[in-house]
């Protein structure tokens, strides 16, 4: 499809871009001439290479790393202030930082459990703060910035990362699933901002993506059966995210070999599932992600049996204060 809204000369903020999908998206933005503020706790070596490559002020696009804890609202405010100071007007915001159902913030390892970092009297779940509260707050900050600092008539974009977990249940990851349902609901609820204020809020809903979030966690890898389950790459997801920003229409990609389906309009509230196919996720009567290559996790029972074992022990959920 033709590019109707090129990102060249624009500025983006991407949280969680120290690795994974968000790094792939940030790299594509930079390669297409868009300045990027990368916000994360740290940069993996591959992200450091990207930042170093685009650090020069004389290039067509520039990358700036801002160390950011996305659960700290003051640091989120500072992230916007730094981006504005370095680049001026902000055009694209991706609150992409997220984690899976880590043992340190996990429904089946509640506050007070040996592995949990969520304290019994803390009133917080880190997983919720990272995956849902942070994207909500960043979306508020982005809308506020867009309304107060707009210097051009071009459309502004907020692009979220949902998941096929935003459509499916998963006993192995109840809080993660709840956060991704929440992201999809947020994106759909803000759809009308596109027509009223030119602020387009969209999302991708990836399947099983080959990123450190999976590959460096043995407790997750045990759910994957090589030869039966297929990985989707972070770069494939990044390409779809870029299309959501640069195009007003996108072809659905159908079949394992990438056949072209019908055109659909990109508008506020659009959510695109990204597996080995790309399709629109409808709000009502959607067929769901099951069965398509890049969406399957064959051995969920490996984790479910661990959960049943935890629940069968004495005193599950009894916090030690």
TrEMBL record:
<dbReference type="Pfam" id="PF00106">
    <property type="entry name" value="adh_short"/>
</dbReference>
<dbReference type="GO" id="GO:0005737">
    <property type="term" value="C:cytoplasm"/>
</dbReference>
<keyword id="KW-0560">Oxidoreductase</keyword>
<keyword id="KW-0521">NADP</keyword>
<dbReference type="GO" id="GO:0016616">
    <property type="term" value="F:oxidoreductase activity, acting on the CH-OH group of donors, NAD or NADP as acceptor"/>
</dbReference>
<dbReference type="InterPro" id="IPR002347">
    <property type="entry name" value="SDR_fam"/>
</dbReference>
<dbReference type="InterPro" id="IPR036291">
    <property type="entry name" value="NAD(P)-bd_dom_sf"/>
</dbReference>
<dbReference type="InterPro" id="IPR020904">
    <property type="entry name" value="Sc_DH/Rdtase_CS"/>
</dbReference>
<comment type="similarity">
    <text>Belongs to the short-chain dehydrogenases/reductases (SDR) family.</text>
</comment>
<protein>
    <submittedName>
        <fullName>Short chain dehydrogenase/ reductase</fullName>
    </submittedName>
</protein>
